[in-house]
């Protein structure tokens, strides 16, 4: 059900009536938590690129009577979401899997309303990930092969146009396939960021 590495919904300060977007919603755990927080006048949209996960999330929503949620099939690099239509974006352990993280951040900025917020939990690395790990499918499915160095990750968010980029939680993330964790440390971090109220939206190319 949940394949995340943090609790973005716990720190996103979601309010009643807000429109929330979950990038890489999987089976929907964070969408369902957010749905309770925004209430019946709000809405939570989950986007995931696999039919299987979208199908599973839709079945869970129906079985549990969630009426303020919607799951869309799509890629976070090309979001099936209108410009400036979302109050808050959340994401849990997904952006590390993207091969074009700059595009993901630009797309996130595009769909947020002016003044909108982003809260993401994701895996980052202490040092650049070695080439051997980048070719290891187990390492990809363990969410470490595509991990960026923390400073690079935060810098790309700022370059995309996000302001007030802050780490609000951080802990060690140990994955067995890494072998000796002393050789390579990963972290799970939760980051908040904002879209300016005045700045023009950057569009993904
Ligand atoms: C580690 S799981 C996390 C799922 C969910 N956020 C959770 O916490 O349970 C990663 C999810 O991201 C989806 N995903 C990976 N890359 C994606 C992309 N580029 N666009 C959309 N979804 C993606 C996968 O299909 C998978 O459901």
In this entry the ligands are: S-adenosylmethionine
Radius of gyration, in Å, reads 16 Å
How many distinct beta strands?
A: 8
Question: Mind telling me the CATH superfamily name?
Answer: Vaccinia Virus protein VP39
Structural class call reads alpha/beta
> Main sheet?
8 strands, mixed
Overall spatial form: globular
Question: How far do the termini sit from each other?
Answer: 33 Å
The number of domains: 1
Q: Count of helical segments?
A: 7
Report mean pLDDT, rounded to a whole number.
Answer: 91
CATH architecture: 3-Layer(aba) Sandwich
Query: Approximately how much beta-strand content do the residues carry?
Result: 25-35%
- The CATH class turns out to be Alpha Beta
Helix fraction bin:
25-40%
Low-confidence stretches: 201-205
User: If you consult CATH, what is the topology?
Assistant: Rossmann fold
């Amino acid at each position: 059900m949940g394949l995340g590495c943090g609790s973005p919904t716990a720190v996103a300060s979601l309010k009643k009536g807000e429109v929330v977007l979950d990038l890489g919603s999987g089976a929907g755990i964070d969408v369902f938590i957010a749905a309770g927080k925004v209430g019946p006048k709000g809405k939570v949209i989950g986007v995931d690129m696999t039919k299987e996960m979208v199908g599973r999330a839709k079945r869970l929503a129906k079985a549990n009577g969630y009426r303020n949620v919607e799951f869309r099939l799509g890629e976070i690099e090309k979001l099936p979401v209108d410009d400036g239509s979302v109050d808050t974006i959340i994401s849990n352990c997904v952006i590390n899997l993207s091969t074009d993280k700059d595009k993901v951040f630009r797309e996130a900025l595009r769909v947020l309303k002016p003044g909108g917020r982003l809260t993401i939990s994701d895996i980052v690395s202490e040092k650049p990930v070695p080439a051997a790990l980048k070719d290891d499918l187990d390492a990809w499915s363990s969410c470490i092969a595509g991990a960026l160095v923390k400073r690079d990750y935060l810098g790309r968010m700022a370059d995309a146009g996000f302001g007030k980029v802050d780490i609000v939680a951080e802990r060690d993330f140990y994955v067995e396939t890494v072998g000796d964790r002393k050789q390579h440390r990963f972290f799970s971090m939760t980051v908040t960021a904002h879209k300016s109220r005045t700045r023009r939206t950057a569009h993904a190319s």
